[in-house]
Design a protein that fits this description.
145 residues, two-stranded antiparallel sheet, 2 helices, mainly alpha
């Protein structure tokens, strides 16, 4: 009456998504370390093997935008106050380009100083020694009793 059915049929629940290995290369949002053995969907408590920071965070999501309202481009997502801690956001979508290297502050400062005072390494060392000796002589004459 109901017809025949395949005994070898395997039921897969739609509530539990299949875990698949990623095909795209991802990097940690904080240290930039590669995440080669990452399984998708990303579990909530997944950590970076290099810096041990949590990965299911807003900063690792494609919808994260520092200039958007609530720092999220998903308009109906719940507010997450700490963007660097694991959360339960249902709209989380891993971003392969989440890491942004911080600017090298020391190099930028050196360039600014060179622009203001000139490059000290460009002059000859003999000139620098002569100038240093002249300054030393002036100081000695100034402070003699």
């Amino acid at each position: 009456m109901f017809g025949s059915f395949d005994v070898n049929f395997t039921y897969q629940s739609k509530l539990t998504p299949q875990t698949t290995q990623m095909s795209e290369t991802y990097t940690c949002w904080k240290c930039g370390g590669p995440l080669p053995d990452l399984l998708l969907p990303l579990p909530r408590h997944e950590e970076c093997p290099h810096c041990r920071v949590q990965l299911h965070v807003c900063r690792m999501c494609e919808y994260f935008d520092a200039v958007a309202p609530q720092q999220c481009r998903e308009p109906i997502a719940d507010l997450v106050s700490d963007k660097a801690r694991a959360n339960f956001c249902g709209y989380f979508k891993i971003n392969p380009h989440a890491f942004t290297a911080p600017p090298d502050q020391a190099d930028a400062s050196h360039r600014e100083l060179e622009g203001l005072f000139g490059d000290a390494s460009s002059g000859s060392s003999a000139e620098a020694d002569a100038n240093e000796d002249a300054v030393q002589d002036e100081l000695e004459q100034l402070f003699r009793k």
